[in-house]
Hints:
There is one protein chain. By secondary structure, the chain is mainly alpha-helical. It has 3 domains: 1-56; 59-161, Tyrosine recombinase, N-terminal domain (DNA polymerase, domain 1); 170-341, Orthogonal Bundle (hpI Integrase, Chain A), CATH 1.10.443.10. Helices cover 51% and strands 9% of the residues. It contains 16 helices and 8 strands. It has helices at 33-48, 60-75, 78-96, 106-119, 124-143, 170-183, 185-197, 201-205, 248-259, 262-265, 275-289, 293-297, 304-315, 320-327, 332-335, 359-372, and strands at 2-7, 12-20, 23-26, 212-213, 218-221, 224-226, 231-233, 242-245. Strands 1-2-3 form a 3-stranded antiparallel beta sheet, covered by helices on one side. A 3-stranded antiparallel beta sheet has the order 4-5-8, with no helix packed on it. The radius of gyration is 29 Å and the shape is elongated.
Amino acid sequence: MKIEKRKRKTCxxxxxxxxxxxxxxxxxxxxxxxxxxxxxxxxxTEILAGQVNTGVAMPxxxxxxxxxxxxxxxxxxxSAGMRDKQVxxxxxxxxxxxxxxxxxxxxxxxxxxxxxxxxxxxxxxxINNLLGTVKKMLNDAVRWGMIQHNPASAIRPLKIQRQExxxxxxxxxxxxxxxxxxxFIEEYRLIVFALNTGCRLGECLGxxxxxxxxxxxxxxxxxxxxxxxxxVVMRTKGKxxxxxxxxxxxxxxxxxxxLDGRKAESPLIFSRIDYEYLSHEKFKRILKSAGLEMALSRxxxxxxxxxxxxxxxxxxxxxxxDLQHILGHSTITQTEKYAHFAPSHMFGLTNRVTFAAPVSxxxxxxxxxxxxx
Length: 373
């Protein structure tokens, strides 16, 4: 093993190099000689355990399998891990899986993304998510000392034009609530809750009776129903727990459910609702049976109830910072897409900037125009 030393003006960096099974391994430049030796020791252990391919250059497909085993499965939530696996299996490995990891270059990755974009099969946002997965995987390859630099680091994500959110109109909301109250009472209760809180479907179905305080009018959102795992997990999409207010409409519905003995039936409030059924085809059928074809034409889904809550909140003079907390957005940028629903959003803004000639100049100009006439 050899420890290389590189002096800089402000620091000294170290790198470990060694040969094993006819392959050379090099670490990245590290802050101390000890870190370089520790890296070499760990790498040798991984090679002996068969965790690192040696003797031949590792193809991308083999490294992807190693990355999934050592990074994705131990560190990511099940649903996020499934998305990474699907991205690699469907879009990356069929075209680049045979390429040697050390030979992979920026052009190959960029051309792959261009072909995917040209096909029109997936949306630009999904392409950006794909790029993010590839960048993370190759960053780990650099960190593990398998390649010297990340060939995807120079590729910029696609610019995405912000699309208008799909909401239900006041009339459509009235029709939907009336129809479900008459024909789908369980779904009606869930829809009332979603419309009045802006909660996601998974957050609604993961809500426990013990997390609701009807006297204070609050609910703690700290878990979701994970559709892929088919169970409740203690996390939220933004990975932040939040307490949300409950208005009288929600409290009334929850009291009715409690009187029906629902607390004894299950700790989950909406235990009778099937996640997959409602998140896909059933909600469309509910809209169709209610005669809401216009909403269907705008591609309305259950998630549109969340957008409807947010838009109405802003119309009723709510502010973005309160809405950010209620919706559980990690950044205010996510919430800003609802700003234009506020009635005072644009009103009077141009009055803040006024350019006008002095009064004396206006009088002189008026007299001049009178003479000319």
